[in-house]
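Two quick folds needed for the group meeting slides. Do the first one here.
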Amino acid sequence: MLRRTLLAAAGTAPLLSYAAAPATKKIGVALGAGSARGFAHIGVLKALVEAGLAPEVVAGTSAGSLVGAFYAAGYTPWQIEDVALKLRDIEIVDLGQSNKRGMFTGETLQKLVNQYVKDVPMERFKRRFGAVATVLKSGELRLLSSGNAGAAIRASCSIPGVFVPCVIGDEELVDGGLVSPLPVKAARKLGADVVIGVDVGVLPQNTTRVGLYEVILQSFEIMGRSLSQLEGQTADFMIRPDTARFSSTDFTVRKEIVQAGYEAGVAALPELRQLLRARGFGLGRAG
């Protein structure tokens, strides 16, 4: 929006000068990795949207990228919850399609995401979005914010040993949790003025592990905690749902995990509003 200012100089006709109004500040969220605990992201988003604090920038890693993509594409948190509760495991993983480089190819997940976002490329999402993945050859972080959404989510979720590496362009990409399990820096790079980090990971609580899949995930949890804590320190605000009582491999308690995220989001609102006001965000009655 332009603000017009009349400038008059002695002995000359009035001149018109236009000054651009300040751009609207954007709230961003960094949705972290966490496998089944990632359902808590849905609850946090429900609390934020309900309070009139809907994020406009979304960065996600692994499970956070999946929830983030749906939200950025235009789904409400309530719609995302509905999808999450209805999905069956067979609709997400490629049972019987393993090879020597992973138990699952990830093709089913890629197709599922593209189906729900109607094949809209990420740069055309309703909100700015990026998924974090890791370049297998070099260990570099790769922020995917344009092109095929399903492929980006597949790459971000491709836990080595569980999923076959995802090939995008000439690069093999694997799970973003290897380099940035809590993508705060990515959210800033995407244009967020204030970044809310949502950390759903915990140190492993359950020592009962029955197979390769569980062992790999527990190893990821151990490795990711230090990285999440370090990057979390760079967030403007942190929300940490109480997910310790849930196993990262238990997909039967999705509703309870969503609720844990919602409760954490609601509890954080008073302090979050105070921060946003201090940072110059104009909050209406709902905020």
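Then this one, please, same format:
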Amino acid sequence: MDREENIAGGGLAPAQARRWLATAVEEARTGLGEGGIPIGAALYGPDGRLLGRGRNRRVQHDDPSAHGETDAFRSAGRQRSYRGTTMVTTLSPCWYCSGLVRQFGISRVVIGEATTFHGGHAWLAEHGVEIVLLDDPECVAMMRDFIQERPELWNEDIGDE
């Protein structure tokens, strides 16, 4: 049974969060198919419109800053404001991506799972960002399988040599 947790309160319906998560999961699977790390993300506007989507492309682009959240953020292009936007990610955001959320005032983060990696989402919640943690079994399984099959690449990604 899925555990759904809304750390900061707020009002995103679980069904909507899961629909948005499907976009990020699709990106993660595409990244895995490209030989990369299966972390996907999407940025949604206050009106629910998809602004941008992306995936971790560190391997594909030989770029250590090409995380899933930054890829989605970049594909969204410039926005006048990020207030009311939602970043959806298959995995708890690392400190780098958590900083991006804080820097640009993204209001909410929907997280597929934080079992295999617990990033900066509690810190974001402490700073007023609404966190919706879905604990999605598909996201957990995808990352567990990847970590088991490619531990060296995973350790490189999280900076754990």
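Slide caption for protein two: Confidence is low (pLDDT under 50) at residues 1-9.
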